Amino acid sequence: MPTILVADDHPLFREALRSAVMRAVPDATLREADGVDALYALVERESQADLLLLDLNMPGAHGFSALVHLRAHHPQLPVMVVSAREEPAVMRRALDHGAVGFLPKSADAGTLGEAIDAVLAGDRWAPPAALKAPAAPAEEHDAAQRVRELTPQQFRVLQMLGDGLLNKQIAYELGVSEATIKAHMTAILRKLGASNRTQAVLIAGKLAVDPEAVMPPPEDAE
Asked: Pseudo-torsion of CA 47, 49, 55, 59, nearest 10°?
């Protein structure tokens, strides 16, 4: 009996996806997350799950960064990206960063069933156009490799930095001291090969769906 995790912040689509999965795999056990923090907690609890259906545009996920992080720390968990972004280049980038499949949100129930059957059998599945698109550039792969080196807590700090939070705001959100966040920032800069906060965000921003839209963080005390 397979366990399938569903991560999407939109209740209506999550409900539709749940119904489609149950039609395709009637004996599946479903677990759901409606945000990135809930997702990471769910993956920790369900580390032996058979498949994660991951919304690419879930707030806080920052494009492909959540996929890269999950593949680094939970390599045994197959991840299929589900997204309304259906450009072949976006689909190919997801595959290049470790997704076992890419399912457009416009897909019908029959296609969903076909995709899930394929990945549960150990194959990859994506629309043909994804496989014909150019591979992700070398600098993007380099950024992904650096992000993989971050611990889960360092990764959370980097995500919050990308959301524009200052050190004191991150400390408040995580329930730790500002000194602890500064220590995390030092480690993040070292692992990313960045000299400051702005450079760190721009390096991680190469994993955004639209890297050119990434905004540098506000100034903060080191």
From this structure: -30
Q: Domain residues of the chain, as ranges?
A: 3-132, 138-213
Contact 127, 99 (CB under 8 A): no
Sign of CA dihedral 93, 217, 142, 189: negative
- Identify the CATH number of the domain defined by range 3-132: 3.40.50.2300
Helix axes 197-204, 152-162, angle to 10 degrees: 100
The pLDDT score that the predictor gives to residue 216 is: 76
Round the average pLDDT of the chain to a whole number and report it: 91
The residue among 164 and 99 whose pLDDT is bigger is 99
Cα distance from N-terminal residue to C-terminal residue, the chain: 50
Q: Which fold, 138-213?
A: Arc Repressor Mutant, subunit A (1.10.10)
